[in-house]
Amino acid sequence: MSETTAAPTAAPIRPLLESAGAVFGQVAGREVARHFGDGNAEYRAVRESAGMAWRGDRVRFRLWGKDPARMIHGLITNDLLKAPAGRGVYAAMLTPKGRTIADLRVFRREGAGGPEVLVDVAAEALEGVRDHFKKFVPPMFARWADATGDIIALGVYGPRSRELLSAALGTDIPALDEDAFVEPEFAGARLLVAATREAGGEAGFDVFVPADHAAELWRTLLVRGAETGARPVGFGALETLRIEAGRPRYGTDITEETIPTEAYEQAGLMSRAISFTKGCYTGQEVVIRIAHRGHVNRHLRGLLLGDVGVPAPRTPLTDVDTGKQVGWTTSAAFSPMLGQTIALGYVRREVQPGEDVQVGDGGEGRARVVKLPFDRA
Predict the structure, then answer these.
(1) What would the 3-class secondary structure string for 96-160 be?
(2) Around Cβ 62, how many Cβ atoms within 10 Å?
(3) Which stretches within the chain are classed as H helix?
(4) Residue 2 in domain
(5) What CATH number corresponds to the domain at position 317?
(6) Are residue 230 and residue 313 in the same domain, yes or no?
């Protein structure tokens, strides 16, 4: 087993972010660009053209050795071994009792020394994943390292993201299904470009680039972006877009309290995150038992709050008639798409979409429970 300590800042591209007007903050103790001076314009760029982002809120692990894919395959809910070439998988990593340590994306690729796996997770899940690897990845079959300081994650999101990224890389990036990836070269370095729909459901790509090429790629994206109306986008706008897309984030909407079915079933993510045909994995018994013989008592749902202020995480949701608590909020934001405050939250299964719940203990207002993702109409 091999370990390194991830760099806590933007490192090679921080001066460029500062030059673009970045205002910095922290997520899970790691530096992020909160915004670039105009969050509304950043949001519009992703909806109308494209936005470029440094994903300081994400961390990465690299696994290599005799059989790294098989080692991580046994630790996640999805089927990595049956994924075709050029297809990553989204999955959860669970405790033996079926609780969620992380949600993650996993990509198989050929490294300079043989097969390797790249794992992308939210910064909030860093310690849990590291501890899990220490316990369950035998060095005889795979070694691993925190690769966050070696591989920088940049995002390009929006309806013109493919056009912008193709221009910046000097090669055509094909239209890809979510989690599919290609590995183009840039200035002699091999990148991994993975498709995502997390930013508001818009087309988009996460680009994993060697750290010593990240600044050059960011500069190129800025130059090309100026030709398309694209602009740098901060974590704040990305969070609004993520919530609008109905996508849960580890550390806020998913924690170690969460069983995957609670987060994924009513959010339409079960087929993307969980395989019911693969072999054994840690926590599988709980997931299979729920799927075949039972149910969970709560589900992640959307909440429309109208002009109610943005609630804090874990704000209680209560039955409007009895006052009994029926859930709580997780992520929330004002939605430009819907013109009102929206939230994600866990609601008891007997509360159906279309019903109202009371927000908070002090009569803050009501919320309408809706299916995910949020309907743009």
Answers:
(1) CCCCEEEEEEEEEEEECCEEEEEEEEEHHHHHHHHHHHHHHCCCCCCEEEECCCCEEEEEEECCC
(2) 21
(3) 14-19, 39-48, 68-73, 126-136, 161-169, 211-226, 235-244, 260-264, 270-273, 284-293
(4) no
(5) 2.40.30.110
(6) no
Helices (H), ranges, 294-357: none
Total-model pTM: 0.95
Q: Are both 237 and 301 inside the same structural domain?
A: no
- The domain in which residue 365 lies consists of 297-377
Look at the chain and report how many structural domains it folds into.
Answer: 2
User: Average pLDDT, stretch 338-364?
Assistant: 93
Classify 187 in phi/psi space as left (phi over 0), alpha (psi -120 to 50) or beta: left
The pair of three-digit structure tokens given for residue 282, joined into one six-digit string: 């840690």
Both tokens of residue 288? 């299979």
Distance CA 309, CA 311 (A): 6
Mean per-residue pLDDT, 5-27: 81
Q: What is the pLDDT of residues 151-197, one digit of tens each?
A: 999 999 999 999 999 999 999 999 999 999 999 999 999 999 999 99
DSSP, residue by residue, 11-56:
GGGHHHHHHTT-EEEEETTEEEEEESS-HHHHHHHHHHS-EEEE-T
d(CA 215, CA 324): 53
Q: Is the domain of 216 the same as that of 325?
A: no
CB atoms < 10 A from the CB of 138, how many? 11
For residue 373, whether the previous peptide bond is cis, meaning omega lies within 30 degrees of 0, is yes
Cβ atoms of 106 and 91 closer than 8 Å: yes
Give the Cα separation of 49 and 158 in Å (integer): 6
Would residue 209 count as lying in a domain?
Answer: yes
Closest among 91, 99, 77, 94 to 132, alpha carbons compared: 94
- The answer to whether residues 153 and 62 touch, using CB atoms and an 8 Å cutoff, is no
Residues 310 and 164 in one domain: no
Strands 231-232 and 51-54: parallel
Can you tell me the distance from the alpha carbon of 368 to that of 85, in angstroms, rounded to the nearest whole number?
Answer: 43
